[in-house]
Amino acid sequence: MAPELLLDSNIRLWVVLPIVFITFLVGVIRHYVSILLQSDKKLTLEQVSDSQVLIRSRILRENGKYIPKQSFLMRKFYFNNQEDGFFKKTKRKVVPPSPMTDPSMLTDMMKGNVTNVLPMILIGGWINWTFSGFVTTKVPFPLTLRFKPMLQQGIELLSLDASWVSSASWYFLNVFGLRSMYSLILGQDNGADQSRIMQEQMSGAAMAMPADTNKAFKAEWEALELTDHQWALESVEDDLMGRELDFDGMFSKELPSGIF
Amino acid sequence: MASVSELYDVGWEEMRDKLRKWREDNSRNSEQIVDVGEELISDHASKLGDDVWIIYEQVMIAALDCSRDDLALTCLQELRKQFPDSHRVKRLTGMRLEALERYDEANKHYDAILEDDPTNTAARKRKISILKAQGKNGEAIRELNEYLEQFVGDQEAWHELSELYINEHDYGKAAFCLEELMMTNPHNHLYCEQYAEVKYTQGGLENLELSRKYFSQALRLNNRNMRALFGLYMSASHIAASPKVSAKVKKDNIKYAAWAANQINRAYKVSHKPRPSDTGTHIATVKESANTNCCILGRGRPSTNVGFSIADADM
Lengths: 260, 315
What we know:
The complex is a heterodimer. By secondary structure, chain A is mostly helical. Helices cover 58% and strands 2% of the residues of chain A. In chain A, α1 (9-37) packs across α7 (167-177) and α2 packs parallel to α10 (209-226). Chain B has 16 helices and no strands. Chain B has helices spanning 4-8, 12-25, 30-48, 51-65, 69-82, 87-99, 103-116, 121-133, 137-150, 155-167, 171-184, 189-202, 205-221, 226-241, 247-271, 278-292. The two termini of chain B are 33 Å apart. The A-B interface holds A 43-45, 48-49, 52-53, 55-56, 59-60, 63-64, 66-68, 71, 233, 236-237, 239-241, 244-247, 250-251, 258-260 and B 4, 7-8, 10, 14, 18, 32, 35-36, 118-119, 149-154, 175-176, 179-180, 182-184, 186, 210, 212-214, 216-217, 219-220, 223-224, 229, 256, 259, 263, 266-267, 270-272.
């Protein structure tokens, strides 16, 4: 049976709340620092142009039904033609930017590390040192004994349930838990959102941007091949004439005179 | 001369909000902007905070429209002091030079911006406007085409190109541009209507049918588009009166034209305005002439542009 421990309410006042505040403030500071250290991304003309072409092709697929069949086919032919369709013909030069050779990416990575990982380690260590030797809180779900050395740093009790954790684990809990608070206060896409950054780092290593253009072209080509033209205006007159036109309030508004 | 705030009894906050509304709506009422804006910046500049810079820009462009070079220069100088290296301010300098018809210097300014930042769309568009102002329509069209090859998504540019083509009477290409606009804005009834008008002007049975369909689409999107209603009536009557159509098509088109005429009459009733006396007789004439197989308006073929001018299709 898990013993119910009664913790001193001073712990709540002087440990739990300060850690929350510290984590939150450090996150906000990280956000502003990342803004200051941000380098502007210069896009090349080709990238801008390519992204717009992809958008145009997507719009053609989605809204092609609003233009006459002939025009749709003309555009589809322009993009997908076997010999000189745009998607078939254009091959962009692919230079996957490896972190070692591309200096700007290197500095970006370093800045990312400095602003995010380093403070986390430092503050985590400081909290562990300051608030050590006592139980801070209890996680609401049962944990196995294997978690004890990880979550109960500094508490040397062999028989204590693994659910009772130390302040360092409370700190880590906060780092991830306050993410939604950051979105609320700092708006989306903020620099304090650490787990998102870590996710990006993991998937970013597998994804190289320029190669994307060729692949994106190929994907668009396939999608466009499959699209058919269903003219939305087949029976528009009959739809329209099914009922009387709605002239409600058309002439009743007074025309505005003067500026205000 | 009484100031705006005295005439309308408004405070500076209302004036500032009005200017913001005009910015968001992109309305080109330059004289009003100059009146309101001039007073705002001369009397209340300190209270505006950081808003003042964008108001300077807005008032400057309006001042160029109204030939108020003094006001434009003042605004420009303030902006230049605050943002010395900005491309946006350089573009405004170029615009002022254009207004003074010093086109070569303006061109140099824009080329400098483009050297620094090849993706800057504003500078390219100003260069095309210079060509248009100088009357070099052909070159403007060529440059605009090149611009659009790079920046396919720029809707303002597609619209401008369609206007240029209409001025050159190249209706096929104008229709292409309007198709692009219709695809990106499928719910905008004005593009449908303009497209229908271009198709109507091109003439030929197929184009007339297309134009009738697109007029109907414009009406479906906005029941109150009177121009589209008239367009529907005209195109349907034209097809009905054409000698080459089958009897069923003729019958359908007469039905459409009659419905359109009905709606027009209803609209006049709703507006309590007296309807022009020939609408009613016009419909009777359509039915008669369709039966006797001759064209309504006295012209030989439906492909002639009968009184439906595209030139005032600017909205």
